[in-house]
Amino acid sequence: MKTIFLISLLLLFFLVSCISDKEKTISVEEKSEIKQAPQEPLEKKEIVPEEKIDTPPTYVKVENTTLQIIAPPTPEKKEVIVKGNIFTYEPSLKVWRTYLSREGMKQNLTFRYTPEQVKNIVVTGTLNSTFDKRKIFITFDPLNTHDLAFVALAAQELSSHLAGSFQRIPLSACTQEAESCTDLVTCDDKDKAVIFLNNQPGPLITLDHNCLVLTGQGEDIMKAAERIIFDWYGYYK
Fold this sequence. Notes:
22% of the residues lie in helices and 30% in strands.
């Protein structure tokens, strides 16, 4: 239960730090793209091969508890270009960094993967107009304790991009009642826009009308989360 409470704290911290007043439109077409300014076409893309080596763990500090999360393998190439955007790998942080120009502003974004590395994750279905609402609930099953640190990290990253880039209000919730999680939201709440972090084998993305289901365990749920985030930024157009 302490881990669940820490996950809730992590989500609430993200909400307070990221929310702004503007609003964007989430497409209800397949792949759930978010409209943005057109980008210059790229003549060719580079695919990033990964070295099959062991990578030391990274750590996420939440309150007085340190959660260990294994970083993805270190790639051979430290710089790739996707749709005109340069992604640079930073070994010290084990993240990819890119700068995206939107509405005259340059955004500094970091990811665990590049768009090329997660583009083959299957996306099925469509979303409806519920996702035009400003509030989006990010929910998970608190009784499924498998690799909860990755579920927390996926929720954190989704919240960051929804609030910081697309001016949505992400709200944390659970699919089942637990001691520190009493706000229950599921895909059956048809009047709500819901992102369900389905902590089961994957990765897979299902768009089910009012519910965006990201399926995966461990690193796979992070891959699914970043796959849909890249879709929102228009990297797969």
